[in-house]
Sequence to fold (423 residues):
Amino acid sequence: MSKEFKNLETLCVQAGYDPKNGEARVVPIVQSTTFKYDNTDTVADLFDLKSAGFFYTRLGNPTVDALEKRIAALDGGVAAVATASGQSANLNAILNITKAGDNIVVLNNIYGGTFNLLGSTLKNFGIETRFVSSNDLEEAKRNIDEKTKLIFGEVLANPTTAVLDIEKYADLAHSHNIPLILDNTLTTPALVRPIDYGCDIVTYASTKYLDGHATSMGGLIVDSGKFDWTKGNYPQLTEKDESYHGLVFTEQFGPAAYAARIRTVYLRDFGNIAAPFNAFLTLIGIDTLALRLERHSENALKVAKFLESHESVEFVRYPFLESSKDYKLAKKYLKGGSGVISFGIKGGREEAAKFIDSLNLVSLVVHVADVRSYALHPASSTHRQLSDAELEKTGISPNLIRLSIGIENVEDIIEDIDNALRA
Ligand SMILES: *Cc1c(COP(=O)(O)O)cnc(C)c1O
Fold:
């Protein structure tokens, strides 16, 4: 980008695309899978990664590129890679620096889909996941050994809303020459830029707040460019890659080596890429990200306070409640708490189901983080694959309800919740 902007609201609208004289003002949707060249030498250089340019949409596309540049600018990273979904973002981010025989240390309160991926599926590929309790630094420390390749967690955990102490985990990771990878899906750069606090790689399900309207699956990986791969044990990045005639990623791409390898090896081989149309919709979503997250956070805090004072409610988890154990961390790291609240209804599974079935404006969907208000019962849906013991460990009780507060009028939202609680 030729223009340099700094402030969040401006970057949300302007970053990633700078049209030249007479070009489309809005990022165009380039559906073409392929790109034309005048001679074979140019194409050969592209294939050998000696020059940058589009040649096949599996490895890069102008619409997707604008989205990647925008999120990199928003997060303060050197490069970003867009993928087909949040799942594929976390998969690529982790596989990029692990192989059979390695292990990873993972905070256990992560999203259910990621829990399955890391705890169950990756095991079949010989990568061991060591789950550790959230904000218990000593437990994480005890689990790191010479085969540990990274620490992974969520900045604001979905659905428990626990806030991670980013600086402490970054320091721990760096003292072992391994990177900290954080999923920033629920907070987005509108509420926190994890790289500012030492995080090395940031991932997203752009499916959630970045798109913000529940219209496009997508994932993003942002490379801070700050981690020195040559200090750790990362042969994928520091040794010769046979599929590129012995190219060494850290030598060829410098600080952007990590992101470059995901694109040129994993998008090339796995093909779990972002679709140009989804990238276009996500860019439109990000235009209003700063505004939306402000309103989501404001509405959710009001709803959380209402719930806290309600006689049918056992507990409320929202980081910006003064009663929250995460209040200090939230104040330190976050500009707002997002729209996600979890609370326990008095009673158990049955009462939780009755509450959700009685809602009217707030709808039952398996989704969070778009403009509409939603409710979900994790124990019978997103987390139903977990045993009671596993549920216990991740902090999800059978009576827990997850709310995703939208940008509707907050009085209308509260009235609906109040009616359902009475029912
Ligand atoms: C939804 C979600 C994912 C997975 O994203 P998909 O786009 O559904 O694949 C990963 N992490 C978090 C925190 C999520 O909320």
